Amino acid sequence: MPPLRIVIGADTYPPDVNGAARFAERLATGLAGRGHDVHVVAPSPDGPAGRDRRDGLTVHRIRSYRYPLHENFRICLPWQAGPATATVLDDLDPDVVHVQAHFVVGRGLAVAASGAGRPLVATNHFMPENLFAHARVPGSLRQAAARWAWRDLARVFGRAAVVSAPTPRAVQLLAESAGIAGALPVSCGIDADRYAGGVEADVPTVLFVGRLDQEKRVDELLRAFALLPAGLPARLEIVGDGARRGAWTALAEELGPAERVRFAGFVSEEELLAAYRRCAVFCMPGVAELQSLATLEAMSASKPVVAADAMALPHLVRPGRNGWLYQPGDVEALSARLATLLADAPLRRRMGAVSRQIAGSHALGKTLDRFEDLYRRVLGHTTDRIAAA
Q1: Terminus-to-terminus CA distance in the chain, angstroms?
Q2: Same domain for 152 and 239?
Q3: Are residues 180 and 252 in the same domain?
Q4: Which H or E element spans position 282?
Q5: pTM for this prediction
Q6: Does the structure show a pLDDT above 90 at 16?
Q7: How far is CA 84 from its chain centroid?
Q8: Is the pLDDT of residue 67 over 90?
Q9: Alpha helix positions (H), 213-361
Q10: Close Cβ partners of 172 (under 8 Å, ≥ 6 residues apart)
């Protein structure tokens, strides 16, 4: 494939810490590593607009403002971001535009691209539940707000020639909630080799990685951990930050003993790798996961997984083979599954090996291949791989 000039629109991008930001970065750096001229358009992490060159690609930052209801969340103003993204697009004259969201930056690029007849691909990482905590939407209004949000997404993504989502369940959700038919499942992908190696900590540790917001249900994990048999050595490590950190820290102290639970907050990439490698079991109690990169990362580190039987997590967990699923809210069942794994090192090793095999089917190289194929499609090129997909 000849090198392309690709613009990736991301409403969240590192230094932001979340799955969508990490995927956008991996996609951008992976495509740049294949020789493409890659440009990312994303909100500024500190306010002023700017541009910087990193990892073989160019990041164009759109002026942003601190969101008053969340200290780690920044927003762009539509009346500023729309013209700014259109200007970037005109200056770059890309072969293809690939937006990662329908919010302000993604919307601006989608409108500008479709208006100018530029090939447009859209990938969805959005569920309304993931934003309700940030937007402080009252419970009584959430159902109506979710319907409006899906309709809004359909208006923006309806401009794209191709729409994708990370899993078949995420594609199904787009069809059911946004009326978008024909979307394609394309895994976020993982560089499994990066997570290999390491030795378990002396005391078996349960690990959670993610935002500390309500839909992640870390409170259920804390309660399940507190129910473990008294004589079973175990620790719980929680990596990430968010609106519920204070409340969940207080809950851990209430349930006790608090010294067995560590809230690590945001950590560096190397610290995160170390956390995956030293844990014994990974737990994902979230109920709004369109794929869960954190779970894939833990599986790449050869860890068994106990996860909620919700959204796309069943695509990753094979019950009895690389871990177990449990019904959200069933704290006793979650505790029992954790106890079984914490008490049985050989079982952890067997299930961890299967986890790594499953993660191998999500190789980042396959994801990059697939998106290169989709870019060919929207550019009017055809390949055998597209026809067979």
Answers
A1: 18
A2: no
A3: no
A4: strand 281-284
A5: 0.90
A6: no
A7: 26
A8: no
A9: 218-226, 245-255, 269-278, 293-300, 331-342, 345-360
A10: none
Beta carbons of 212 and 245 less than 8 angstroms apart: yes
Provide the pLDDT for residue 1.
67
Report the amino acid identity of residue 300: S
Grouping H, G, I as helix, E, B as strand and the rest as coil, residue 167 is: coil
Q: How crowded is the C-beta side of 25, counted as CA atoms within 13 Å? A: 15
Phi, psi of 346 (to 5 degrees): -60, -40
Do residues 180 and 203 both lie within one domain? Answer: no
Three-state SS for 231-264 is CCCCEEEEEECCCCHHHHHHHHHHHCCHHHEEEE
Indicate which CATH number applies to the domain containing 67: 3.40.50.2000
Query: Does 109 share its domain with 245?
Result: no
- Asked if 88 and 116 count as a contact pair (C-beta separation under 8 A), the reply is no
pLDDT, tens only, 271-323: 999 999 999 999 999 999 999 999 999 999 999 999 999 999 999 999 999 99
Phi, psi of 165 (to 5 degrees): -150, 160
Structural domain range at position 153 = 5-189+363-388
Q: What is the pLDDT of residue 363?
A: 95
What residue type is assigned to position 77 of the chain? L
The two tokens of residue 173 are 């959700």
- The domain total for the chain is 2
* Cα separation, 254 vs 155, whole angstroms: 46
Counting other chains too, the contacts that 142-149 makes at CB distance below 8 Å and 24 or more residues apart are 146/177
Q: Are residues 17 and 43 in the same domain?
A: yes
Helices (H), 47-117: 78-92, 104-115
